[in-house]
Structure prediction request, 600 residues.
Amino acid sequence: MSEEQLVADLVVQRLRAWGVHRLFGYSGDGINGFMGALRRAGGDPRLVQARHEENAALMAVGHAKYTGGVGVVTSTQGPGAVHLLNGLYDAKLDHVPVVAIVGQQATTVMGAEYMQEIDLQGLFKDVAAQFVQTVLSAQQAPMVLDRAFRTALATRSPCVVILPHDVQQEPLADPLPQEHGVLVTASEWRRPHVVPTQADLQEAADVLNAGRRVALLVGQGVREAQGQVRAVAERLGAGVTTSLLGKPWFDESLPYSCGVMGHLGTTASAWLMEQCDTLLIVGSNDPWTEFYPTPGQARGVQVDLDGRHLGNRYPIEVGLTGDAAETLDALLPLLDPTHGSSWREDVEASVRRWHELAQERASLPADPLNPELVVRSLSARLPADCQVSVDVGSVTYWYARHLRLPPGVQAHLSSTLATMGSGVTYGIAAKLASPDRPLVALVGDGAMQMVGIAELITVSRLWQEWSDPRFVVLVLHNGELAEVTWEQREMEGDPRFEDSQLLPDFPYAGYAELLGLQGIRVDSPGGLEAAWDAALGASRPVVVEAVVDPDVPLLPPFPAGEQKLESFRRGLRQEPDGGEHALHLLDEQVRQEARLREDS
Ligand SMILES: Cc1ncc(C[n+]2csc(CCOP(=O)(O)OP(=O)(O)O)c2C)c(N)n1
Ligand SMILES: [Mg+2]
Prediction:
């Protein structure tokens, strides 16, 4: 017996069939049919209302990153749909599956320059290049939903389902009839194991076995291959560096772990890339190519599940399409044990020197607080079961260089799109996925003003239902868009442009109190430990407002960083008081870096 239901109810059913129990979004009349179906569904799936559709989309991306599943977001037509774009691009550039369900004007008025009518197929064409489809008839709906989810999972990208207002309310027979022009589809997709051929594995092994100074660059693709990366690195006596996205997936306490590579990376990673003669890239598409070995310096092997990434960043010799874990498992028996060279000792010495340098950097007195110290001092206090979210700004540098994540602790941020706003939004998604685990979000004051302040309102609504209410937002209050100020100096040799860089003042801790949360303001090194202890021991969400020095330089690791010094100084000398304070801090950092290189 077939039963009639509305298309909107079927969409909700399909979400459940795809394992979706939570979606993020914002209301509007264009999506009201779907909202009605969510109401009738009684909370499964649950709609989490954000303050802005972009933030809802970022939450969906965060959900996908922390859980490994598909993030789902919904919005109304017109302005709501436009607001989604940035979050969807975050999903596209960091390769995570997201499905957006977007309202549209009724099919009867399309093409009429009707109110809020936007060509949504055109709008989403690039961001959802793998799949964007407007549902034009009731019987088409289940197929479009299934294809959107399957495509999002198979291509790890955002897919968009556009639901015109009238179609949402159309009746639909379930099951569909088996006839020409009607498709009966299934909500089904499973991940394959992809392993290269034995001959290709052998070619890769030959390159790696010939190396004397092997480096591994690993990215988010090693999420499920941490043991295999370690085994391969130990067999080859290699040093390991990670992309920013790869940071949580390799234990940085290992003596041969060089930390994050690139502009915001560690000096040990720069040393590793400069010195290696063989590079094995696994699950990384890291864009900082000027920090890779010079082409010709190192022979290269790359493993990636997405064959389009092979040879995309470095002229490798052997590119293997495959899952990281299975491919490394298959490669390991073909690898010769390390041949007694001093490379491993050299790597470990470089890592030790970096750790000393990082400690020295964080100890450099600044006015009033050194942000490096603020983030570094969190490492020892991070609960073993916590989750971390990170925003884009100078805090990303301090996260990359100073935060030691306990094994198994996930940390996520918008890496490739590098959009501001991922700190509090991803944090909310992480917390909703694991309400029994503490969450720490690291955010700059600019990102706070752009997104975080609004989404703290969402936190203030939700926190009482969390079994562990700890949601700690660190705000680095430096009064400016410091990362970009440093880029103005580094790239253009320009002084800080105050009109573009200075931020209006805002009482972050006081605002938290207004929302019924706790606020802690800290402006001296002596207050840091107590601030962390209070925040991580609190029985409600806390904003830790750390008043930090915007003049602490964002120096890229040497030797690349050394080439930027003249430009930094040129910019600083043109600033009021000749940039004296920042120049002093820069000189100190240069002195530390130079000493480290002398020791090596
Ligand atoms: C949406 C968006 N707009 C602009 C930028 C460029 N941008 C990158 S970092 C940054 C500064 C962030 O300022 P803040 O959050 O105060 O962090 P700070 O660097 O000062 O610690 C800006 C403007 C961006 N990445 N994303
Ligand atoms: Mg700032």
Remarks:
- The chain has a mean pLDDT of 97.
- The chain has 22 helices and 20 strands.
- Residues 392-395, 418-420, 444-447, 476, 478, 480-484 surround thiamine diphosphate (ligand 1) (CB under 6 Å).
